[in-house]
Specification:
alpha+beta; Rossmann fold; OB fold (Dihydrolipoamide Acetyltransferase, E2P); 2 domains; 6-stranded mixed sheet; 19 strands
Length: 355
C-alpha cells in the first residue's frame, strides 16, 4: 500500500478528532474522505500533510514512516478550500512559487508553468491576478501550483466548496480527468455525497473521529456496513416496526430500518388498475409532492410510517391527500453495530432491484 495510517489518535482538548483511525490507500488512487462536519476528515488530511501531528499512531507514505518528517519533506501538494493564492502575485508567479523555493532554473520554470496551464485548461492567463479570475479558474490555478513541484501525493481540502453548483459539477469531471492523466495518488475531503460518489475510486467514511467504512462508491452505497453509513449515504427514511410492512419479517435484535426512494414504487390508486405484486403493496396517503426536475419526490404516509419515493413526470398527477399503492422492494434493518439487507418476500432473489 502507498499510504497507511495505523491506529491514529488525535485530540484537541476533550474533542477526539481521530479515534483509532486506520486505513490504507493504493498508489494512483483518487480517494474521497467523506463525512459530516466535525467527523475528523480535515484533521486526517492535515496529519498526512504534516500540518498537524498525531498524538499516537503511525503514518507511512510509500513504505516510509513520516511521523517526524516535516511537511516540506513529505512530497505532498496541498490544495486549500480557500485557494490560498497569493493575491499580490500573478498566475505565473503563483504557479512558479514552489519551483522558485526549489531553486529551479528560469527555463525549467517557464516550461513547467506553461505545461501546467495547458493541463488545467487555462493557457494565456499568466499575467492575470487572482482577483481577475473566476472561482473555478482560481481553483484550477491552485491545483497547478500544488502540482508544480511534482509531488508524489496530492491532498485537497473541500476543493469545490466555495464554487457555485453548476461550476462545481463541471470541475468534478475535470478533476477526475486531470488525475487520470497524471496518475498521482490523491485524497480529497468533502461532505458532499454526490461529489464523493462521482469522483472517487474509493471512499473513506468518517464519523465522530472514527472510520465507519472504506470501499468503492457502489459497494458503500449498496452494502452499508454500519447504521451510520446506512443513514448517511443516500436519501434515507428511518422507520420502526418495519415488520408491519407486507413482505417483511422482524430480524432479531434489529428494531429500525432505512428505506431509500429507489427501493419504492408508487402507483396512483385506481379501482380497475392491476400491478405486479399487488398483494404485497401498501395503501398510502400522499403528504407532500415536490418537483425535482427529472421526477417528483413524493412523501407517503403508510399507517403512521412516512416513506419517500420518486414518481415519473409522465405519470398521472399526484396531489397531497391522494390515495396510492406503494410497493417496497427492500430495506436496510440495523441495530447499534451492524446492518442487514432485507428483500421483500414477493421478489425472487434473481429480481433484486438496484439503481
Amino acid at each position: 500500500m502507498y499510504i497507511e495510517l495505523r491506529h491514529i489518535h488525535k485530540s484537541f482538548g476533550d474533542f477526539k478528532a481521530s479515534d483509532d483511525v486506520s486505513f490504507s490507500i493504493e498508489k494512483g488512487k483518487l480517494i474521497g474522505l467523506l463525512g459530516p462536519s466535525g467527523s475528523g476528515k480535515t484533521t486526517i488530511l492535515r496529519m498526512l500533510a504534516g500540518l498537524e501531528h498525531q498524538d499516537s499512531g503511525d503514518i507511512y507514505i510509500d513504505g516510509k514512516l513520516v511521523n517526524d518528517l516535516p511537511s516540506n519533506e513529505r512530497g505532498i501538494g496541498f490544495v486549500f478550500q480557500s485557494y490560498a493564492l497569493f493575491p499580490y502575485l500573478n498566475v505565473y508567479q503563483n504557479i512558479a512559487y514552489g519551483l522558485n523555493i526549489q531553486k529551479k532554473d528560469k527555463a525549467f520554470i517557464q516550461n513547467r508553468v506553461r505545461e501546467l496551464l495547458d493541463l488545467v485548461g487555462l493557457p494565456g492567463l499568466e499575467k492575470r491576478y487572482p482577483d481577475q479570475l473566476s472561482g473555478g479558474q482560481r481553483q484550477r490555478i491552485a491545483l497547478a501550483r500544488a502540482l508544480a513541484p511534482n509531488p508524489e501525493l496530492l491532498l485537497l481540502d473541500e476543493p469545490f466548496a466555495a464554487i457555485d453548483a453548476k461550476v462545481r459539477k463541471e470541475l468534478r469531471t475535470w478533476l477526475r480527468q486531470t488525475i487520470d492523466k497524471i496518475g498521482i495518488t490523491s485524497i480529497f475531503v468533502t461532505h458532499d455525497q454526490d461529489e464523493a460518489i462521482e469522483v472517487a475510486d474509493e471512499i473513506v467514511i468518517t464519523n465522530q473521529g472514527r472510520v465507519e467504512q472504506v470501499g468503492d462508491p457502489a459497494q458503500i452505497y449498496l452494502h452499508p456496513k454500519t447504521p451510520f453509513v446506512a443513514q448517511f449515504i443516500g436519501q434515507s427514511d428511518v422507520i420502526t416496526h418495519y415488520s408491519r410492512l407486507r413482505g417483511f419479517e422482524h430480524v432479531k435484535g434489529k428494531h429500525n430500518a432505512v428505506i431509500r426512494p429507489e427501493f419504492i414504487e408508487i402507483h396512483k390508486f385506481t379501482d380497475d388498475g392491476h400491478h405486479d405484486f399487488e398483494s404485497s403493496m401498501e395503501d398510502g396517503t400522499v403528504t407532500e409532492v415536490c418537483f425535482r426536475g427529472s421526477s417528483y419526490e413524493v412523501r407517503v404516509d403508510i399507517g403512521g410510517m412516512t416513506v419517500t419515493g420518486r414518481y415519473p413526470l409522465g405519470g398521472q398527477a399526484l396531489r397531497r391527500g391522494d390515495q396510492v399503492k406503494v410497493f417496497i422492494r427492500q430495506l436496510y434493518t440495523f441495530d447499534e453495530t451492524s446492518t442487514e439487507i432485507i428483500t421483500n418476500k414477493a421478489l425472487d432473489q434473481s429480481d433484486l432491484y438496484y439503481i
